[in-house]
């Protein structure tokens, strides 16, 4: 069933679990994620980021995501990840997404607040949840020139109060696109942040977080945890094995079975760690 982020996050923030937001790129990972969620009888967030939308534009990708959400036996939020501007968020809302994230984390605090509030007001008028980021989670890829800056608790409190967002993404030690689980979470900073705000917290770049720290994050008021690289690695590595083992194969559908199973297995593992 299709639901909003606010519905999922408000409940998760009060409980000893966090809802995974899996970055998806098409049918081949949408379906394994939904299957894993249904096996766990757990809510889930299907998240489309900008590279996914550049590859498969919203008029094509959104119906796939929405059909999977509406026919699932568990609550599913369809979410825009790291929307870069107002128009991107407006387009996602127009295409039926139940949640959007606006990422103004590279802006000044004042400009981030101004733009986020404008998009939050628009989203709420359309019954859509909004997440935004204060502080900045950087990238392990040096070619992506984005600052990495831990969140300041006082700025998080001001940001939430002045924008009216439904959930806030904070930077407490994670890094996007880490291929090994070597991130170190500053739990003291996380506690200081959650003491300042009432809205659910979100952690990005979680593929690089060790399992024990990921489980610990879920015990805080962290309601949403983003996971992307772990699924892409599971799919990509298994697909490479299939192609090496079947050098004469050219029908891609015949090569997708094991990679899809690997995505499902990885998603199941993340659900378990996050409290399901």
Helix/strand class: alpha/beta
- Based on CA inertia axes, which overall geometry fits? globular
Can you tell me the CATH class? Alpha Beta
Q: What is the fold named in CATH at topology level? A: TIM Barrel
CATH architecture verdict:
Alpha-Beta Barrel
Task: Tell me the strand order in the biggest sheet.
Answer: 2-3-4-5-6-7-8-9
Q: Mean pLDDT across all residues, rounded?
A: 92
Assembly state here?
Answer: single chain
**What summary fits the major beta sheet?**
8 strands, parallel, barrel
What radius of gyration results from the CA coordinates? 18 Å
Helical content band? 40-55%
Can you tell me the number of structural domains?
1
Count of β-strands: 9
Protein topology:
Elements: E1 2-3, H1 5-14, E2 19-23, H2 27-40, E3 44-48, H3 50-55, H4 58-71, E4 76-83, H5 86-94, E5 99-102, H6 109-125, E6 129-134, H7 153-163, E7 167-170, H8 187-194, E8 201-203, H9 211-218, E9 222-227, H10 229-245, H11 252-255, H12 257-273
Parallel strand pairs: 1-4, 2-3, 2-9, 3-4, 4-5, 5-6, 6-7, 7-8, 8-9
Helix pairs in contact: 2-4, 2-12, 5-6, 6-7, 7-8, 10-12
Describe this protein with a few key phrases.
276 residues; alpha/beta; TIM Barrel; eight-stranded parallel barrel; 12 helices; 49% helix; globular
